[in-house]
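[Meeting: bench + compute handoff]

Bench side (C.D.) handed over the final construct sequence. Compute side (W.E.) agreed to return the predicted structure before the next meeting so the bench team could plan truncations. Sequence as handed over:
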Amino acid sequence: MLSLFRFDGKIPHDNPRILLLGLDGLAKFHGANAQLSVILSHELFHLYHFQVNPLPHDTDDIPLYRLVWQEGLATYVSHVLNPDASLSDVLLDPRLANEGPGFIPAMATSLLRDLTTTDDLTAGRYLAYRRVGMMPSRMGYLIGYEIVKRAATDHSLADLARLRGNALLELVRTQTQALAAQ
């Protein structure tokens, strides 16, 4: 479909059983050399994740920790399924992959204060793409990826996909604290 350059691929929260691919967005955001296998792995994992771990009925009340987890988990799985892909490829952003690690402690510290918020503007600071700024955008994807990578040493992907509620919040909080202390 045409997204009018609003997205490349997405699962609408109000209908988490469908995948929308914006061909115009794919071309604009990722160019002729887009890593389609990485993008499709990421988005198709979201479909699976929402089947085994459904979203709450009121999708306006999804806390930030779950959004960061969802994106980090999909990014991690896309890396597992595309082992030759670079971190830049799976994050879909060379700047985030190259410069982002240096900002992790500061952003993780900030994220700790915001973990349970459901505010869209706050979530956007961690997950939305911005063209300008000293810090790379979408730091929540990188932090989520690092949290999942750490958790995957002790848990199967099937178990990680099913984590929710307080167990998920505590895992995200503990790992975010560790990232903040780096």
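W.E. noted at the follow-up: Residues 35-180 form one domain. C.D. will use this when planning the next construct.
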